[in-house]
Amino acid sequence: MPNTENSDSQSRFSIIEVIDGFIDKINQIRKILLGISISALILAPLAIGLSAYLILHPHFFFILDEYDEFGIFLAISLVMIIVISISWLVLGMRQYLMLKSWNKKYSNYIQRKDQVDNQIASEFKLDEDQEF
């Protein structure tokens, strides 16, 4: 019987370690996604601004009139850049807000985990240096 209890407690401990590792990996991915969303919040307005500047430039209509094929290609390209940048900006904002809420939940999880660990350690009088 002692082997069963020892094996059972070790499997619970390993499950907790796996879950903690999984949550840590998700947190690493969250940091990468946060960088991507911040880049979207910076680069999308820049692309929209440059496209708007080119469209509003006085020589833009001259290029449309003078160079038929290139003018059409340029106009279509600028409109596509603006549409894609607006959608990229909206998705970046949504992603940033979602990751911000994840950060709050992750902080609460870490605090609760530390509280439970401290409570268990004090209840069973376990040292932090003691290995299981």
Short description:
With 132 residues, the chain is mainly alpha-helical.
Q: How would you sum up the major sheet?
A: none
What string, H for helix and E for strand, traces the elements in order?
HHH
What radius of gyration results from the CA coordinates? 27 Å
Number-wise, the strands total: 0
- The level of helicity is over 70%
What is the averaged pLDDT score?
Answer: 83
Measured between the Cα atoms of the first and last residue, the distance is: 19 Å
Low-pLDDT stretches are none
Question: What's the overall geometry?
Answer: rod-shaped
**What structural class do helix, strand and pairing data support?**
mainly alpha
- What percentage of amino acids are in beta strands? under 5%
Helix count? 3
Explain the layout of strands and helices.
Blueprint: H1 2-56, H2 58-66, H3 68-123
Helix pairs in contact: 1-3, 2-3
Question: How would you characterize this protein structure?
Answer:
With 132 residues, the chain is mainly alpha-helical. The protein has a domain at 35-114. 91% of the residues lie in helices and 0% in strands. The protein is rod-shaped, with a radius of gyration of 27 Å. The two termini are 19 Å apart. The model has no long low-confidence stretch (mean pLDDT 83).
